[in-house]
Amino acid sequence: MTAAQAEMEIAEGIRIDRPDVADGAALWRIAGDSGTLDLNSSYSYLLWCRDFADTSAVARDETGEPVGFVTGYVRPERPDTLLVWQVAVDEAHRGRGLAAALLDGLTARVARRQALTTVETTITPGNTASERLFAAYAERHGASIERTVLFEAADFPDGSHEPEVLHRIGPLAV
């Protein structure tokens, strides 16, 4: 990683920067090991690291190995809104505030490039860790949270998914 790629260094030698295609396999593994995320195909993580690197972030340990990530994209019809797709931290690095640092670092980077007033994410009911992460994010950024059901369980064709609740966080002070 070059100095230009580095975004921020946080405690214990962890750096946060943009992902690249070489990180796709590690992101896929971290997502699978999370136990809570819907695991997408390994191909999708490779594409995400290629096509959405500007709106995603990866945390690297002192060796440069990914230990956490947040993926997102700017909504085409709402260019002031960042939709956060997935956030995951490797088990050995949990409990250190890394997910919050990833989320803060990513939104600060996106806000430097364009006006950012809102962060959206969907959370499956019962995912307490994500609820806490995004509630704390809203508090740190002086924002409120509006919750609405985005997709009902019946919307999913395989019938094996709970409803997804959209959390709209804003207006942001980033």
Give the overall form: globular
**SSE series:** EEHHEEEHEHEE
Q: State the share of residues found in helices, binned by percent.
A: 25-40%
- Radius of gyration (CA) equals 15 Å
Q: What are the low-pLDDT stretches, counting only 5+ consecutive residues below 50?
A: 1-6
What is the subunit arrangement here?
A: single chain
- Structural class of the secondary elements? alpha+beta
Distance between the termini: 26 Å
The averaged pLDDT comes out at: 92
The description of the largest β-sheet is: 8 strands, mixed
Give an overview of the whole structure.
Residues 1-6 have low confidence and may be disordered. The protein is an alpha+beta fold and 174 residues long. It is 29% helix and 32% strand. The chain has an 8-stranded mixed β-sheet.
Q: Brief overview, please?
A:
By secondary structure, this protein is of the alpha+beta class. It contains four helices and eight strands, in the order ββααβββαβαββ. It has helices at residues 24-34, 42-51, 98-113, 128-140; strands spanning 6-10, 14-17, 57-60, 66-75, 78-89, 118-123, 144-151, 164-170.
Which key features would you list for this structure?
174 residues; alpha+beta; 8 strands; globular
Strand-helix topology:
Layout: E1 6-10, E2 14-17, H1 24-34, H2 42-51, E3 57-60, E4 66-75, E5 78-89, H3 98-113, E6 118-123, H4 128-140, E7 144-151, E8 164-170
Parallel strand pairs: 5-6
Antiparallel strand pairs: 1-2, 2-3, 3-4, 4-5, 6-8, 7-8
